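help with these tokens:
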Amino acid sequence: MILAAAQTKPTRCDIKDNLLNHYRLIELAADHGANLIAFPELSITGYEREMADSLSFSRDDSRLDELIKLAAERNIIVIAGAPVKINTALFIGDFLIRPDNTISIYTKQFLHTGEELYYSSSFAYNPVIELNNEKMSLAICADIMNRQHPENAGKAGSTVYISSIFFSPQGITGGHKLLKIYAQKHGMNVLMANYCGEAWGSPAGGRSAFWNNEGDLVAEMNDTDPGLLLVEKNNGIWTGQKLIA
């Protein structure tokens, strides 16, 4: 099994350009045998608050069509983020797109200070991925700052914890420390995808990474370059490689 974390430089509010980059990285991940690719928080739009409503997606949004097509054609699970409107509420969401053309939505459960002015939170949308005898739970950014979130994932029997984040250069070191602790404490492998470059007018910290279920750092991207972190499990052992793209 091969998992991929996409480290991207978003173009602010440019959905078309960001989607083109998603397509490219999905193709690249699939070419390297990846079964799943996870993108950073709000990857399709770039991280936004004030513009979130105007950038929002619906569950059956036609702008997802090419992602759905790629997931099916390349037999890869795609986790991509956008503001998601469900009924009248707006959420920070991940679209979980499976190769069988089904779509699930994960919504951020614990908001960062200030996000509550624009977004709602919910525990109602929390899909689980089952892949190659692994059970995978999703997290978005500030979710990992609340220890209840990974604890719930561990109690649910998850073996892989996938976090899509936007952390700054100042925050990413602390994020790494937390994810290492969660891997050790809950016996989960942890995959994390972060932006590099700039998002929302602020620098992003990069360093997308993977820890095994003993808390060992298997592989890590640098803090500046976009690309893919690929991790592969063979005979119970995880190894990683980095692709600058």
